[in-house]
Amino acid sequence: QKEVEQDPGPLSVPEGAIVSLNCTYSNSAFQYFMWYRQYSRKGPELLMYTYSSGNKEDGRFTAQVDKSSKYISLFIRDSQPSDSATYLCAMMRDTGRRALTFGSGTRLQVQP
Amino acid sequence: EPEVTQTPSHQVTQMGQEVILRCVPISNHLYFYWYRQILGQKVEFLVSFYNNEISEKSEIFDDQFSVERPDGSNFTLKIRSTKLEDSAMYFCASSATPDTEAFFGQGTRLTVV
To answer: Which of A28, A10, A30 is nearest to A19 (CA)?
Structure first.
């Protein structure tokens, strides 16, 4: 079983739709969770950073963490064509190996 | 807004040659990282660096790789004898503490021919 699983997509939605992106993980040592956006051939750009279970909102983005189910989500409201990119979830342990473990990324396309 | 900068943006090198990839982390950050992304694959951790020494490294980071902070601002990744399979995007990242978010540079695309 992979440590972090993420549906690669592609996910195609019309402009204005609510987008839901998800990752599951197997290692309960992961305690810090991040979502990055990556445009083609560019570096990952941090969108959200969360530690505790629950929701965190920032503008049109909401990150949700459910540690009991080992499941994290990113919701994008009122999606725009400029949101078209690959979305990467990333996780980090709180002790020992602190390197980020990434999901494979979900490619999102928002149609105008 | 502070950012991590990487140079060059694209490097082409012949197999067996040494390459040095350069990064300038965010100025008040103390933890530095290198990741790589082979085309079409996930981002993979290579090495983390703090207080002038390697904190941790992955199995990818073998004896062909080394990192250095030669001065107060630069952070470099050296590949001693490049192989075809080293072709990838290499990302530098930095964070203020090990518990806070890591910010990534735009990457250096390394092509080994």
So the answer is: A10
Got the DSSP string for chain A? Answer: --SEEE----EEEETT--EEEEEEES-TTEEEEEEEEE-TTS--EEEEEE-SSEEEEETTEEEEEETTTTEEEEEESS--GGG-EEEEEEEEESSS----EE---EEEEEE-
Would you state the pLDDT for residue A94? 77
Give the mean pLDDT of B43-70: 94
Mean pLDDT of chain B: 94
Tell me the mean pLDDT in the region A52-61: 93
The one-letter code for the residue type at A102 is F
pLDDT digits (tens, 9 = 90+) for A24-37: 999 999 999 999 99
Q: CB-based contact (8 Å) between A50 and chain B? A: no
CB contact under 8 A, A102 and B44: yes
Q: Does A99 contact chain B (CB < 8 Å)?
A: yes
Between CA A19 and CA A74 the distance in angstroms is 8
